[in-house]
Amino acid sequence: MNEWKKWLAVSVCCLCPWTARAVDVQVQDVPTRTVLEGLARSGNINLVVDDSVQGALTMNLHDVTLEEALQAIADSQGLYYEKSGPIRTMTGPKAGKGVKTFHTWSLRYADPAVLKEAVQAAVPEADVRCHSDTNTLVVGGTHQMQAAVHSLVKRLDVPARQVDVSVEVASVDDSLLKQTGMEWNWSTVEGGADHDVFSLAGTIHALEEKGRAQILASPHMVASNGREAHILIGDKVPVQTEHLSGKETAVSTTYEEAGIKLTYTPQIHPDDSVTAQLVAEVSTPVFVPEMKAYRIATRQARTVVRLRDGEPLVIGGLIRREEVEHFRKVPILASLPVLGKLFRYHYKSHKNTEIVLVLKSHVLLDS
């Protein structure tokens, strides 16, 4: 036995003065503890070998680092190898089952709170804590638990896939769309092949060129897989609310969003198709003379649809009612006192316009 120790120590020492250097390890039926002790002395490292480490080792390694050699021994013998600062430990299978260690995972992409839930579901016996401020996950458990967590973190701590979404928001006279024979079913266009998504988008652009439709906005947004993305084309309007407190009436003012809002939540599939949850909303401020304030009239459409990469989607049926004031007069005569009223004409009319949204989703390539 002493001869084996002497041969191993001398051979590895010559080949491995530092742990980063490449080494050759050639042993046959040598006690595992002897091999580990020889590697520790030759590499000048702090290695604690537990009494549970038993058995003999036959190994032929060429041009590997000392760290790789130790890990190879652990894997081949079913041992638990851990490095904590300058100290390394090697324990046997039975001892390793009861040894609880803590490991800190520095996450690059994943949300620590979300990953904590995933780890607790997969390894319920592990003690898991997350720190959002440092984007880290601290896991306490046995070597087997740590190995399972390592595999899980490696799979989940990856960049989220993303979708580039382009949106065209058009305002079209409601009567013009009815002339085209379009009937909306919230998220799809009915009417057969003659009125598919592509032809409707073309119809809107043709109406725009003739001045019969208006493109209100063409925003872009990037949505991460499974995360909500929002677009607001509008403003915040003061809305007053009355509260009755005893015999007194109190009025509070809040600011609510008015305009066109779109919420888009994608679920990206392996074939680059996207299942999108969409909520489109048109909110119009309506002035209430009695209150001298605004109220918000809202129209909303919700849908879940699966689209191929680049396939357009049209959302319609969002009617916006507009009040238009008209004022006509006869020059000079309308300015006359008293009689001027006879030469002025003031009236209000209402106009219904339909808000149509055309969306295109493109899955971004993984970097």
Q: How many domains make up the coordinates?
A: 3
Radius of gyration: 36 Å
Number of strands: 19
Q: Identify the quaternary structure here.
A: single chain
Overall average residue pLDDT: 78
Q: Please, how many helices?
A: 8
- Helix and strand run: HEHEEHEEHEHEEHEHEEHEEEEEEEE
How would the global form be characterised?
A: elongated
Largest sheet features: 5 strands, antiparallel
Structure description:
Keywords: Membrane, Signal, Transport. Residues 206-364 form the Type II/III secretion system secretin-like domain. With 367 residues, the chain is of the alpha+beta class. The protein has 3 domains: 2-96, Phage tail protein beta-alpha-beta fold (3-Layer(bab) Sandwich), CATH 3.55.50; 100-156, Ribosomal Protein S8, Chain: A, domain 1 (2-Layer Sandwich), CATH 3.30.1370.120; 163-363, no CATH class. Helix content is 24%, strand content 50%. Strands 9, 12, 13, 18 and 19 form a 5-stranded antiparallel β-sheet that branches. It has a 4-stranded antiparallel β-sheet with strand order 14-15-16-17, with no helix packed on it. Strands 2-5-4 form a 3-stranded mixed β-sheet. Helix 1 packs parallel to helix 2 (32-43) and helix 5 crosses helix 6. The chain starts with a helix and ends with a strand. Residues 1-18 and 181-198 have low confidence and may be disordered.
Short description:
This protein has 367 residues and is of the alpha+beta class. 24% of the residues lie in helices and 50% in strands. The two termini are 55 Å apart.
